Amino acid sequence: MHEPNVPHLAATDPEIAALVEAEARRQYQKLRLIASENYVSAAVLEAAGTVLTNKYSEGYAGKRYYEGQQIVDPLEELAVERAKALFGAEHANVQPYSGSPANLAVYLAFLSPGDTVLSMDLPMGGHLTHGSPVSITGKWFRPVHYGVRRETGRVDMDDVREIALRERPKLIICGGTAIPRTIEFAAFAEIAREAGAILLADMAHIAGLVAGGAHPSPVGHADVISTTTHKTLRGPRGAMLLTTAEHAKTLDKAVFPGLQGGPHNHTTAAIAVALKEASQPSFKDYAANVVANAQALADALLERGFDLVSGGTDNHLLLADLTNKGVTGKIAAKALDAAGIELNFNTVPFDPRRPFDPSGLRLGSAAITTRGLETGHMAAVAGWIERAVAAAARAGSREALAEPETARELDTIAGEVKDLLSGFPMPGWASED
Ligand code: DSN
């Protein structure tokens, strides 16, 4: 059952309590491979559910627009100091509500509408807020994009440099949502300097790996760093901005009053707890294990004939092109979900298919590593994925996944997944035995 127990919620609103319980059970029984998700610790969960949610605190410590900040000021200062210490940054802002507002604050701080931004194209692995045409960042600014090389699946820094010197962007963004390889922060910084641009490193996906020493840090290279706190960093839903002393005031003003009102203090507390956890020696092991599991899973999938973008991974994330498996990403993702394996369909670079029905799958190892799975389990995980994808290919359509033979096969896999996971505790769930 959900832990901590929620007796007041159950008494006041049994419908919501039942849904919370069902979601906790679902998370316990599913193999969660969504690359941007994780399991927070029980301590983070408790911090996020406190009376701090009652308090308004527009402004920053010592300069607020409401009274009663005796507790919130030191709380936010503690979170800021922990963020600075963990990443070695000169300045941190822990108030952004999530990754998209954090990135938007950077635009507000450094750009005017119509200014040029150079970033990774969304279908190549970028993010909506990196200038996608459907995002405010694509509508109000002038995005130009780099991608990956078709032959390598990797960013070619010579291409980035060529575009930057031609387009003279005011902002260059590195990082994204579907990048399985190491981001070359130093090379991006050199190009930004040459082009006279501000460099934003969006390290949302890899923040936990950076904190744990399993990915190079953008600190010292990028002018500004944005990150969510809930992916590999294993904190609550939220975000942070890191920057130099030089840009601190500009960035703070962009977050508040530029873009947001009062910070979510319960989230700030939970972020502070997650930052403390990420500074422990055991988090280094966690980060290393995340990468080791992703690489073991990549090897096991390659052995089974899966086509991985860039041929593997350096981090927590894998991108599989299912074209050679004869099934689309969407049908495969639905089949895998029915088989107890949760991930998302994703475009692959140069995808001939539409974004809502693309060719690929994105997988990540952050949550299963928190659960305690090790490299030795990855062959079984790849075997389940192979069986479910083959069943999806045979079915040929989303509707046909419900036909008895396919449904039985997917259900059998889900049972095997559940059996394995029953040996691995989940924070937020108390065993019913
Ligand atoms: N939606 C997140 C992801 O899944 O990568 C990024 O914002």
Shape: globular
Instruction: Kindly give the count of domains.
Output: 2
Contiguous low-pLDDT stretches (5 residues minimum) are: none
User: What is the topology, as strand order, of the major beta sheet?
Assistant: 4-10-9-8-7-5-6
Instruction: Provide mean pLDDT, rounded.
Output: 98
- Helix content range: 40-55%
- What separation lies between the terminal Cα atoms? 10 Å
At the fold tier of CATH, the topology name of the largest domain is Aspartate Aminotransferase, domain 2
What small molecules are bound in this structure?
A: D-serine
**Structural class label:** alpha/beta
Secondary structure: number of strands: 15
Strand content: 5-15%
Count every helix, treating DSSP H or I runs of 4 or more residues as helices: 16
Describe what you observe in this structure.
The chain has helices spanning 7-12, 14-29, 42-48, 72-87, 99-110, 136-139, 157-167, 185-195, 207-211, 248-259, 265-278, 281-303, 329-338, 366-371, 378-395, 404-421, and strands spanning 31-32, 59-60, 63-64, 91-93, 116-120, 142-146, 171-174, 198-202, 224-228, 239-243, 307-308, 317-321, 341-342, 344-346, 360-364. The mean pLDDT is 98. The strands form four sheets. The protein has a seven-stranded mixed β-sheet with strand order 4-10-9-8-7-5-6, with helices on both faces. A four-stranded antiparallel β-sheet has the order 11-12-15-14. A two-stranded parallel sheet has the order 1-13. The longest helix has 23 residues, at 281-303. It contains 16 helices and 15 strands. The protein has two domains: 48-278, Type I PLP-dependent aspartate aminotransferase-like (Major domain) (Aspartate Aminotransferase, domain 2); 283-421, Aspartate Aminotransferase, domain 1, CATH 3.90.1150.10. By secondary structure, it is an alpha/beta fold. Bound molecules: D-serine. Residues 36, 99, 127, 177 line the site of D-serine.
